[in-house]
Amino acid sequence: MSWSRCRFGDVVEVNPKVHLETGVEYPFLPMEDIVGGRKYNPPTQTRIFDKSGGSRFANDDTVLARITPCLENGKASKVKGLLEGVGFGSTEFFVFRAVKDLTDPDFVYYLAISDIIRQPAIKSMVGASGRQRADKGVVENIIFNMPDLPTQHRIASILSAYDDLIENNNRRIALLEESMRLLYREWFVRLRFPGHEHVRVVDGLPEGWERTIIDKAFVILGGGTPSKEVQGYWQDGEINWFTPTDLTKAQAMFAEESISKITADGLANSSAKMFPPYSIMMTSRATIGAIAINTTEACTNQGFIACLPNERVPLYFLFHWLKDHVEEFISHATGATFKEITKGVFRQLPIILPDQGTLLKYEDTVKPMAECVLNLQRQNKRLSEARDLLLPRLMSGEIDVS
Q1: CATH number among 3.40.190.10, 3.40.50.1000, 1.10.1040.10, 3.90.220.20, domain 210-353
Q2: How does pLDDT run across 297-354, given as a tens digit for each residue?
Q3: Within 10 Å of residue 283's Cβ, how many Cβ atoms?
């Protein structure tokens, strides 16, 4: 196995030229669609390219956030699956491309997310507070030890095995979540629930269904911000304190751990309210409608409404009802500084509750699918942790792969 001292800009093209036609529609990748720690984040939208454009990339390139806090949060992605081979995205991306016969494209991705590149990039940040950007020249001039091409292939293959399993699990999660969503709409929007053909319609609703308002259907709680004195790090006796960033970053059905914590004793000295496991958290400010089920006792900040299921309104029906009404919630949001749907407005929104028998059938049907989603999320967490432990050791040559 041969390693040599290299300058990053000599073995990787930084912001390579990509030809895009002005006025033509291409896949577009915004920064908010990148999930830190996820190798593949395919564009889910298209935009017309103009000269102001953004970062341009092609299949097999790597994009890495260059702005705070996205760079610190590990926002990066390997580009693949572009039908025309090219696309563009946020102006706040670096684009890295492997050099033929020198670097492996997957190795370049893992190099980009390693501390070898990320830490010097973070330290090079300049600009106004909150809008600092990494310096391209500093990144290009990073000197590091690089293995020969066959060794790069082997290192990339080992790490890719973990990411491929994660990607496969993500596809399974997406299929399960879509199945649950379609089942919800089939039963409760199209009204084709089991036995519907034998149920009378009374005042526009199937018999046994009722119209009510949220305030009479289930309990909601607001969040609060704990004081600095009671915020800490993970230790026994501390509770997850979720912020909207936790939900938008994870983009997952279940939320198991937050970045910030609050001590159990500190709850008495703060405005935060604790709610039980398997409640539903929904962001109520700015990015309204990010929704997840917490699996532990938790608190939220002011940007949330926490919805507590009960015997009348069970967990998975409530979760999918909330997901299905996000556009309605957004339409009720007000505010000059930032848009928000207030708890007072939310409590008065109408909800149609199916009969108890139909709700229980729905819960029994989707619960195994939801539990499978949770198990796959937990598998991905373990795979990510194993990959992240291996990454620095492989990239430094500490582990011999010859």
Answers
A1: 3.90.220.20
A2: 888 888 889 999 999 999 999 999 999 999 999 899 888 777 889 899 999 999 999 9
A3: 26
What is the tens place of the pLDDT at every residue in 213-224? Answer: 999 999 998 776
Same fold, 3-146 and 210-353: yes
Q: Which residues pair with 308 in a beta bridge?
A: 219
The candidate with the shortest Cα–Cα distance to 238, out of 260, 262, 255, is: 262
Q: pLDDT (tens digit, 9 = 90+) per residue, 42-101? A: 998 999 998 777 899 999 999 999 999 899 988 999 999 998 999 999 999 999 999 999
Of all residues in the chain, the percent with pLDDT exceeding 90 is: 72
Residue range 148-194+357-402 in CATH 3.40.50: no
Q: Which DSSP category does 49 fall into?
A: -
In the chain, where the domains are located: 3-146, 148-194+357-402, 210-353
Report the predicted TM-score, pTM, of the whole model to 2 decimal places: 0.87
Specify the CATH number of the domain 3-146: 3.90.220.20
The residue type of 352 is I
Q: Give dist(CA 360, CA 363) in Å, integer.
A: 5
Q: Which amino acid makes up residue 320?
A: H
3-state SS, residue 209:
coil
End-to-end CA distance of the chain: 6
In what helix (H) or strand (E) does residue 96 lie, and over which residues does it extend?
strand 93-98
